[in-house]
Amino acid sequence: MGKDLITLKNICKAYDGTTILDDLNLSIYENSFVTLLGPSGCGKTTTLRIIGGFEKPDKGQVIFDGQDITDLAPNKRQLNTVFQKYALFTHMSVAENIAFGLKIKNKSDNYIKDKIKYALKLVNLEGYENRSPESLSGGQQQRIAIARAIVNEPKVLLLDEPLGALDLKMRQDMQYELKRLKEELGITFIYVTHDQEEALTMSDHIVVMNQGYIQQEGSPETIYNEPENAFVADFIGDSNIIRSTMIRDELVEILGAKFSCVDKGFGNNKPVDVVIRPEDIELVAPEDGTLTGVVTDLTFKGVHYEMDVETCGRELLVHSTKLSAVGTKVGIKVDPFNIQIMNVPVSEDEEAISETV
């Protein structure tokens, strides 16, 4: 990892008496692709706006490259923002839109011309200089908005749900474009989204937020495979979250059956929450399973079948490339490494923070 470029210290923010961010602390490394992920109202956009200088925290500091920039105006910060609404000037050509920030900085005509050419090449829109933004598709408009931001050579690019208005195929194309741009430019990207797949696809580092708190942060692999609480497990992909009993180290009772696991340190005969991803449940012959169940629902998803399996009065979600028809009795097996154990909240406050189910 690189050095800390941005540090948020004890950030608090409330609107009309409602707390949006509650003592938030976060470090963002230089040249990383960081995604702030969470449901609407979790505080992710407010966090981005505080980094950008569009909002001032009620309490706390924003440190940028060792300097306190909490009170610095947005145009004095070494960063640029790309919004979901592209905010392109419709009365200007593509070139004039890209040049807008450079003209404010009184750059020379030759410098601006070179920068426009460079930026359009970077976003794969060479030859579009004289087009009107209104004549472009949503994806092309988004690329122009990004080009306009990067010509100012920011150290950080802030992106607030920039792909939200695009259709699925265009959004997927732009995800890969943004990853490519980040690598080519060598700058820090801070990205806000509520789309889990987008976060997993693009990020080096994901910050999962809810109710003004950071629930968990880490690599996409860590967030997906080792969620720290039920909110994260449920929000990142599909999960089966089951209240269970930790019998002892490496042995857990799930729905009345004993499963080997790899977790330790949870105590003996303690209540725990177990997370099992749908793709980690193996359906076998009934006599070969640790549990048995019946397939109650089946949906074809293209790359796999999605099945509901009823066992011990509980529905489990299963993803498999092998079809088990509705009504089939099946055995249920799970590899010990695919059983994730989590503590049950011990207080109402903790439960509110983690939203454990």
UniProtKB/TrEMBL annotation:
Q: What keywords would UniProt list here?
A: ATP-binding, Cell membrane, Membrane, Nucleotide-binding, Translocase, Transport
- Gene of origin? potA
Q: What class of enzyme is it?
A: translocase
Official protein name in the record: Spermidine/putrescine import ATP-binding protein PotA
Q: Which InterPro entries match?
A: AAA+_ATPase, ABC_SmlMolc_Importer, ABC_transporter-like_ATP-bd, ABC_transporter-like_CS, Mo/tungstate-bd_C_term_dom, P-loop_NTPase, PotA-like, PotA_ATP-bd
Q: Which residues form a coiled coil?
A: none
Molecular function in Gene Ontology: ABC-type putrescine transporter activity; ATP binding; ATP hydrolysis activity
Pfam families registered for this protein in UniProt: ABC_tran, TOBE_2
UniProt entry tagged with the keyword Chaperone: no
Outline the extent of the ABC transporter domain. Answer: 6-236
Task: Give the source species.
Answer: Butyrivibrio hungatei DSM 14810
Q: Where are the transmembrane segments?
A: none
Role according to the record = Part of the ABC transporter complex PotABCD involved in spermidine/putrescine import. Responsible for energy coupling to the transport system.
Q: How does it assemble?
A: The complex is composed of two ATP-binding proteins (PotA), two transmembrane proteins (PotB and PotC) and a solute-binding protein (PotD).
Entry EC number(s): 7.6.2.11
The Swiss-Prot or TrEMBL record describes its family as follows:
Belongs to the ABC transporter superfamily. Spermidine/putrescine importer (TC 3.A.1.11.1) family.
Q: Which reaction does it catalyse?
A: ATP + H2O + polyamine-[polyamine-binding protein]Side 1 = ADP + phosphate + polyamineSide 2 + [polyamine-binding protein]Side 1
Keyword Transmembrane in the entry? The reply is no
Q: Name one GO cellular component term.
A: ATP-binding cassette (ABC) transporter complex
